[in-house]
Design brief:
Elements lengths: L4 E7 L2 E8 L1 E6 L2 E5 L6 E14 L2 E14 L3 E5 L3 E3 L5 H15 L5 H22 L3
Parallel strand pairs: 1-7
Antiparallel strand pairs: 1-2, 3-4, 3-5, 5-6, 6-7, 6-8
Length: 135
Amino acid sequence: MSAGLKLEITTPTGRVYSKDVDMVTLPGQEGEMGILPMHVPLIALLGEGEVVARRGNEEDRLLVTGGCAEITPERVAIITVFATDETAIDEKKAEEARARAEARLKEKISPDEVALVQSSLSHSLAQLKIKRRAR
């Protein structure tokens, strides 16, 4: 029996995380999923949110923007468009991006632009949620 899980997170620019962990919490499209070693094989679609990797008393928290996860008894492999560590999120810049997106949505813009701005707004809100979670 495996003592842990290998968590790997990959974006189009390459692998951004690869560590042995004890437990992983994923932002599934239908809600949060907790993954422990020896989990049944599963492929799951991810929503935008926080991946929490637990190693003993330590936690790594990363923001992911959707994607999918392949889960096996020994490994969790995530493929996502974007992933960043919680510590790399600049709260001030995320707040500014949120304000710009909300202002832009009040303007008369094309449906294509609305989709892009809503995506930007969603991403900014996810960043702010992670940064402000502890407060």
